[in-house]
Write a structure and sequence with these properties.
Keywords: Calcium, Metal-binding, Oxidoreductase, PQQ. The protein is mostly beta strands and 567 residues long. It is built from three helices and 39 strands. The strands form ten sheets. Strands 1-7-6-5-4 form a five-stranded antiparallel β-sheet, with no helix packed on it. The chain has a five-stranded mixed β-sheet with strand order 2-33-34-35-36, with no helix packed on it. A four-stranded antiparallel β-sheet has the order 3-39-38-37. The radius of gyration is 22 Å and the shape is globular. The mean pLDDT is 96. The structure holds pyrroloquinoline quinone and calcium ion.
Length: 567
């Protein structure tokens, strides 16, 4: 592809020891080497220098204006004291994590007419001396970490069929794994792996099986080719079993009566063998998915009790369907149901089978061709893409939730045409329920008991804020329409610190340490579906919908004196 590199610091990055696989399996406490920091997806850092006692004294250490608008969702990834962040408009920035000095900026040369949906990017992956970036035009790029120069690039899918990419790649087992977007365009979704050294394809596994493959009989003849099942959020990984857990999006077209059957593996989590890409297990959250409930977010890997009370290796996932799921993962692959609890109100799912976890629907709520149906939660679900976090200190799972929003959908026939929307509706409307007392919230759930421990509600805002949990007994997140970035007491949800930033904060927060000092980092930069959602909420409550745009990387610290006095 050959993008442009702008190198500001002519001395560049002088000291960048190659990142080993071991550093990814067991990251140094002060590093944030991947999307959720660790392979289990917990979004947890053990750093505790910033804690409940001193977080009130958190102040900006430095900030950096990215120069672009739209949704800044990527976490600042930090290794070797270097921060890598991505932004909309196809930029990757490398900055000195302690000072904010720019080392280099890479801009992908996107000449193709790429899909305008979801103009965002969720970050990089690292291994060795390389940084991996999934560009919007469905090209995977490897950059030299020290210089930002392209080492290799590989076309992973055809943009003419409306494939695009927004996710952070996952490095596992010497390979770079990616997933694709395009679920509203009749793509056939897949997860693919590329050799980290050369960019050569190692395997590619479709999320929609062909007729002769397992699950192929859950589709009517021919429908698998345009069945969607996009994979636009980074998977998690169990290095022991060598299984990758990846989420699969909505089915296409949206109206399930146009493709009778369960339609595997849409709206599912799949377990893939990292060496071969073979699907070894799956759990489907909504069969014959008809709600645009992409279940792309990967479940967090955590130990929890099974139905008999024995501790097992588990998976937890609050899905777009409004159900928080506890599942058991096995080293061979199969995924077993443990329990499912509604974490936001919903009127579609009426029952969950105690044995299998299969849901039952109120058919009067399920969208279909030629009817108008209203259902809750909305198209965006109880939680869209923003990440949950889990703290091993509290045993709590933290969820950025949205309640009391519904969708009214009038279904229609649709013909597949390459590169064009393949949804099938005459109208789509978002509604806030009449009696709604709040929309967004941060929820904390005990994963051992399946009970909500606390909830912090936002009466006049949705919540699109990914969550960071720390060893300092804190969680951090933004997500609201008041431009706040907040620190909460992880035990009880008390807000211990908040700071208005330049824009709404839908960025994924991270924390890291350089030269013995802890920092907390996040990108501000409101955009993508949070804006769309906020407009509906503002209209309902009669408040201003104005959240200014513009990306800024923010890095916070507690000044040295304050750290000392807190100890
Ligand atoms: O089906 C897809 O391929 C696809 C892709 C994306 C994306 O890549 O960001 C989103 C969605 N769907 C989607 O349904 C959705 O609500 C959504 C919100 C956002 C965002 O960044 O705020 N992206 C996406
Ligand atoms: Ca979708």
């Amino acid at each position: 592809m050959l993008g442009a590199v702008y190198a500001q610091d002519s001395f560049g990055i002088t000291d960048y020891p190659p990142i080993t696989e071991d550093q990814l399996v067991n990251p140094a406490p002060g590093d944030w080497p991947m999307y959720r920091r660790t392979y289990d997806g917990q979004g947890y850092s053990p750093l505790d220098q910033i804690n409940k006692d001193n977080v009130a004294q958190l102040v900006p250490a430095w900030s950096y204006s990215t120069g672009v608008v739209e949704g800044h969702e990527s976490p600042p990834v930090v290794v070797n004291g270097v921060m890598f962040v991505t932004t909309p408009e196809h930029h990757v920035f490398a900055l000195n994590a302690a000072t904010g000095q720019l080392y280099w900026k890479y801009t992908a040369d996107i000449t193709e007419n790429t899909n305008p949906s979801h103009p965002t990017n969720r970050g990089v992956a690292v291994l060795g001396d390389k940084v991996f970036y999934a560009a919007h035009d469905a090209t995977l790029v490897a950059l030299d970490a020290k210089t930002g120069e392209e080492v290799w690039s590989t076309e992973v899918a055809n943009v003419d069929e409306a494939y695009y990419m927004t996710l952070a790649p996952l490095v596992a087992d010497g390979k770079v794994l990616i997933g694709v977007s395009g679920g509203e365009y009749g793509i056939r979704g897949f997860v693919a792996a590329y050799d980290a050294e050369t960019g050569e394809e190692a395997w590619k596994t479709y999320t929609i099986p062909a007729p002769d493959e397992p699950g192929g009989d859950t589709w009517p003849a021919g429908a698998y080719v345009t069945g969607a099942g996009s994979t636009w959020s980074t998977g998690n990984y169990d290095p022991e079993s060598k299984l990758v857990y990846w989420g699969v999006g909505n089915a296409g077209p949206w109206m399930g009566d146009q493709r009778p059957g369960d339609n595997l593996y849409t709206a599912s989590t799949i377990a893939l063998d990292v060496e071969t890409g073979e699907i070894k297990g799956h759990f489907q959250y909504s069969h014959n998915e008809s709600f645009d409930w992409d279940e792309v977010t990967a479940p967090i890997l955590v130990d929890l009790p099974n139905k008999d009370g024995e501790t097992v290796k588990g998976l937890v996932n609050p899905t777009r369907s409004g159900i928080l799921w506890a599942l058991e993962r096995t080293s061979e692959g199969p995924i077993n149901f443990i329990w499912g609890e509604k974490y936001v109100p919903g009127d579609v799912i009426t029952d969950i089978d105690a044995e299998t976890g299969r849901v039952s629907y109120d058919e009067s709520k399920k969208p279909s061709t030629g009817t108008t149906k209203t259902y809750c939660p909305s198209v965006h679900g109880g939680r869209d893409w923003p990440s949950t976090a889990y703290s091993p200190d509290t045993g709590l799972l933290y969820i950025p939730a949205n309640a009391n929003m519904c969708t009214e959908l009038t279904g229609a026939e649709v013909e597949y045409e390459a590169g064009q929307p393949f949804i099938g509706f005459d109208s789509l409307e978002f509604q806030v329920t009449d009696d709604a007392e709040y929309i967004g919230s941060v929820q904390a759930w005990d994963v051992a008991t399946g009970e909500m421990k606390w909830e912090h509600k936002f009466p006049r805002s949705g919540n699109w804020g990914p969550i960071l949990a720390t060893g300092g007994g804190l969680i951090f997140s933004g997500g609201t329409n008041d431009r706040m970035f907040r620190a909460y007491d992880a035990e009880n949800g008390d807000v211990l610190w908040e700071q208005k930033l330049n824009s709404g904060v839908i960025g994924t927060p991270s924390t890291f340490e350089v030269d013995g000092k802890q920092y907390v980092a996040v990108q501000a930069g409101y955009g993508v579906d949070a804006v769309f959602n906020n407009t509906v909420i503002a209209e309902h409550f009669g408040i201003s919908s104005d959240v200014p745009q513009g990306g800024v990387v923010w890095v916070f610290e507690v000044k040295d004196g304050a750290v000392a006095s807190a100890e």
